[in-house]
Amino acid sequence: MAYGNQLAISTRMLTKRYGDFTAVDGVDLDVSAGTVFAVLGPNGAGKTTTVRMLATLVAPTSGHASVFGFDVVADAVAVRSLIGLTGQYASVDEDMTAAENLMLFSRLIGLSRRQSRARADDLLESFALADVADRQIKTFSGGMRRRLDLAASMIAAPPLLFLDEPTTGLDPRTRQQMWSTVRTLVAEGTTVLLTTQYLEEADQLADRIAVIDHGRLVAEGTADSLKDAVGTSTLEVTVGVADAVMAGRILGHLSPGTVTVGVDGIVNVALTDTAAVGPMLVALADHGIVTTSVAVAKPTLDDVFFAITDQTGRTSMAAGAIRQEHAA
Ligand code: ATP
Questions:
Q1: How far is the CA of 49 from the centre of ligand 1 (A)?
Q2: How many separate domains does the chain show?
Q3: 310 in a structural domain
């Protein structure tokens, strides 16, 4: 089926209330088919609730959502035939091996025995489970179960795949493998909606990113446009350790932004205008300070997240949680 130029997901004023508490608050999203869309936010922001509404598992209190044009309430059966969701394979037979399990799911969606074997082998490899392919699932650790669940959710390569915090708790190597598997699926035509607390994951994978906080959409765009909106690039110059403090003073005179001087001779200056870089380097040279490296860096998604949540003025704790998660 071709879904070119179509919206895989569209929501208008999507809202979910639990009693007096509003978990998702008037969210508008448009996700183009064939892209990766990240919903980024701290614990409790409303990411899972949004996914559950889109996956027809929870009914919206108000507002609308559609998947490939099918309404998640009125056309729930059609929506279910177009989506895959992680976590739905939790109740697998514990006595089966990982390979048997993936083969069973492959057979269930109509692949031949040979295709099922090939698909299972590919996925076991992608999720670093090849070595334990023939072990019963009841002997698996939590991390191994999670990887098997992700692998199972990818068997059908559905038109729209929801990955709810797919790499939380995975080691860096498996996380990279997961990213590469997602990229392959998308190249083959699957649209992916991914929720994550990891800014790096959104930056690496997503074509567009929505930041949600306290149930509200607080920013949406490409990683670059979100970074540009924050606006502060950083100049990093490396000078001799003995010159670093002097360099910091000179640059501080030329910039209204914050200057930080590292013991390793690296001086960072927050730039309000990248045109200031030339005069800054000339000033250093005029004072006889040799720079061994110069780089201008865009803000990171961390900076974006902090800037956005600072503007809303209420999420310093949530932002702290994100930072911790990111550093972990
Ligand atoms: P996490 O990263 O922790 O999974 P999240 O962004 O996915 O967070 P949600 O699980 O969507 O957040 O939860 C959003 C808010 O809604 C939370 O405060 C949660 O306690 C609340 N909530 C979710 N489900 C229910 C429910 N069934 N009844 C009452 N409150 C709920």
A1: 6
A2: 2
A3: no
